[in-house]
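Write out this protein's structure.
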Amino acid sequence: QVQLVQSGGGLVQAGGSLRLSCAASGLTFSRYVMGWFRQAPGKERDFVAAISWSGGRTFANSVKGRFTISRDNVKNMVYLQMNSLKPEDTAVYYCAARFSDSTDWLTDSEYPYWGQGTQVTVSS
């Protein structure tokens, strides 16, 4: 049984930083692209960042230069470091996993496994 368990998040002032963590189990971690998505109230779920086993990364334009994604392939963990946070980053953030058989990392429907979500609130 695949499980993605998230931790981190919370309330931070604009300009601050937060780190989200996601622990994966029940899957062969090396075969999966790990992604982060977010959903703001009343909006669709949007792609944030993704990383392959070998460290290839891609980011949404809205977070480039501010967010970084990393993974620990020994601990089966993926992280999202969020710096210079803005009020518009406020959302529920989700960790996700998809098999590494496609280069489409941006489409949420391509990810079969999801974490429970964690709230990130950035105050102005």
